[in-house]
Design brief:
The structure is a homodecamer. With about 100 residues, chain A is α+β, with helices and mostly antiparallel strands. Chain A has 2 helices and 4 strands. Chain A has a single domain, classed as Dimeric alpha+beta barrel (Alpha-Beta Plaits).
Chain lengths: ~100, ~100, ~100, ~100, ~100, ~100, ~100, ~100, ~100, ~100
Amino acid sequence: MLFHVEMTVNIPHDIPKEEVERMKVLEREQAHELQRTGQWRHLWRIAGRFANVSIFDVASPQALHDILSNLPLFPFMEIKVMPLCRHPSSIRDDDT
Amino acid sequence: MLFHVEMTVNIPHDIPKEEVERMKVLEREQAHELQRTGQWRHLWRIAGRFANVSIFDVASPQALHDILSNLPLFPFMEIKVMPLCRHPSSIRDDDT
Amino acid sequence: MLFHVEMTVNIPHDIPKEEVERMKVLEREQAHELQRTGQWRHLWRIAGRFANVSIFDVASPQALHDILSNLPLFPFMEIKVMPLCRHPSSIRDDDT
Amino acid sequence: MLFHVEMTVNIPHDIPKEEVERMKVLEREQAHELQRTGQWRHLWRIAGRFANVSIFDVASPQALHDILSNLPLFPFMEIKVMPLCRHPSSIRDDDT
Amino acid sequence: MLFHVEMTVNIPHDIPKEEVERMKVLEREQAHELQRTGQWRHLWRIAGRFANVSIFDVASPQALHDILSNLPLFPFMEIKVMPLCRHPSSIRDDDT
Amino acid sequence: MLFHVEMTVNIPHDIPKEEVERMKVLEREQAHELQRTGQWRHLWRIAGRFANVSIFDVASPQALHDILSNLPLFPFMEIKVMPLCRHPSSIRDDDT
Amino acid sequence: MLFHVEMTVNIPHDIPKEEVERMKVLEREQAHELQRTGQWRHLWRIAGRFANVSIFDVASPQALHDILSNLPLFPFMEIKVMPLCRHPSSIRDDDT
Amino acid sequence: MLFHVEMTVNIPHDIPKEEVERMKVLEREQAHELQRTGQWRHLWRIAGRFANVSIFDVASPQALHDILSNLPLFPFMEIKVMPLCRHPSSIRDDDT
Amino acid sequence: MLFHVEMTVNIPHDIPKEEVERMKVLEREQAHELQRTGQWRHLWRIAGRFANVSIFDVASPQALHDILSNLPLFPFMEIKVMPLCRHPSSIRDDDT
Amino acid sequence: MLFHVEMTVNIPHDIPKEEVERMKVLEREQAHELQRTGQWRHLWRIAGRFANVSIFDVASPQALHDILSNLPLFPFMEIKVMPLCRHPSSIRDDDT
């Protein structure tokens, strides 16, 4: 099932740069892997902000939470979740 | 280019039902046509609300405005627009 | 799966009382039926407001939306949805 | 009587990890004990957030405050409380 | 037990004046009676607004809801409820 | 004259505990003294929050400000003030 | 004593123009009279809005409420009140 | 001097279409004239909304208010005003 | 021309007290000087908050910004600015 | 295409002054260069705030994001973006 997730990242300025870089590298690896498995179906940058809009396709809210709460930057993210369903006017096969 | 659009519909209760139905039919036809041309790339219902999340792929903000402002339900919508761009961690070809 | 739903009802004052009563009776019947099937797992009144907090146990966001959007008072409700999952500190069998 | 409580946790990043772990262990123990006594009736994780939704069944607002303000993570929580009562459409014996 | 209630009244301008007056008279009678029984312990006007701050002393959230939802102006009120308890620094006998 | 004051306390976690305790002791002493003089007429804890609702009976806004700004925890409080007056439906002698 | 009052006017469009004009004339007369008595000490238009910022010099919150609630446009105003006092850096005699 | 103005238009649906059209024609004429005199320096549509962002170059807040409050759609606009001044990093002659 | 300015001060608790005192002394001196020149026309404390409401009479938004941004506490202030103009119901000579 | 960008800067007080100055110098250089290329079309200071309103003329949301996210002060900015298009009442050649 589909969930719309908006993540905004706020990293405190007094965290050492190497630590931030290390987290970002891990974050990217996890994002790559989750896109490959199809669970992180879409991922866009919101122009002008350190934030993204994502569509997740997961088996349950539990699966969604496990993914999000294990992201390295999770402690520094504000996250908004909205469950999605098929729109009656949609004609796309893959919007479900 | 891509725009993230969230539309929430509030139709005043004193508009005749036939008029509402007529607008919804037209709205659906336009949504179908715009999906076929590829401009309305994604369209999802937000569960529990008379609202949708959409991704538009258009040539300019002007093209986006022309599409949205010509929707039959435009006068009754609250619309939020966010420009999107490619996320550095995305591996999908079609998230651009 | 579980969803937390908060519904606040605002019925315009110029809808005839009989019509409002008719909708409330239907609303109650649907609530009873959905509680019997187990989909509407919990239902509480928020003290001092024409509003409720509910826990739904449904198969998908689509099932949740179909239930909510078919409630007779849906056009007059503001609805907030949050997907829930098991809390690591919970010891109850039925909070999943 | 029943209270709906939403707790969102924000732990400052410069608190030592061992201290955080120690607080979380204590928090879990208290949550277990309060569930066993029946005062913490329901406890759910909100998917995607370090937050929970809880239903407390306590003798008074004073009892609720004593419980919440003694949680080890209380100083780092934003807490919203809503008193609940029986919904006229509820058919469950235990939603009171 | 004590509840802090803030009520803001918004009466639509197209309700006939006699009807509004009739509701206000009933409202006042109920307020008088509830003050006499001790359930509506304090009642103040907020300067400059058609609103009040009240302290209710009732047996339960259910009792509070029954009182508030039966006020004639309830359909036109925005109501905020906060449960209160004794403050550790209070020295008054009647702030409990 | 009466003022409704809601104080929410947020003490930064890196202030030494002894300093916090010292401030709380002083705060309590001042609260006691101001209750004895009748200026701090009511004082309630808001259940579940490090916050209070208070009713002050003072000679002027200046007197109110002098009291509040001299509280030891004032630098860490968010304070909301509303002037109150007699409600036309009140029957209590001491709600003025 | 001084109160800062911001009034924003929203007149429903279906009130007859003559009725609106009649109210505005009365409103102006009362404003003139209250300025002459010194109770409405300052009155400014907020540029670009049907709103004003005012400073009232009255004997009590009760006096303030009586003035504001008797303004002809009171039912159509959103009003925010803040009690003022002398600023320690002020050197003006008449800012008290 | 320069003012940043954001105008959002909300026309009630029960105003006759001809009346709305009449107002829009007048609005456009005034906008044209004010652009010719240089007072309405910039005018952009916000994509996806019945709203605009404008830069006014006027002699005073009074002049700004006189212009805005005489627009035919003024009664149906929400207007936000921010005074602007030269940015120290600007190199444009006409951003003053 | 007149501007309404609301300044709320939030000084981080880890700035040394002497530094804060030094800034406050400078702030007061500048406030005195600007009141003497007539640019800072009114200055009131908002009761219960470390905040003020001020009326400035300056030649332009640029002049206003130069004054505000040179205040010693400017880095720690949240500032809201509203341009004012004469109210049609004002009878005071000096509210312009 | 045009984007309206509002940037508000909040620099933590514990960043060394030289570091802040260094960032500001770089920020200015980039602003100058981007104005020269025509991509940063307008740049105004919002009076009374450490904030600006800007109009960017760029090829895509991606180009906008690349510019903004490379500004030295980007980590300390809150940024709001709105896509703009031509207003039907505009008569200026350069508002497109």
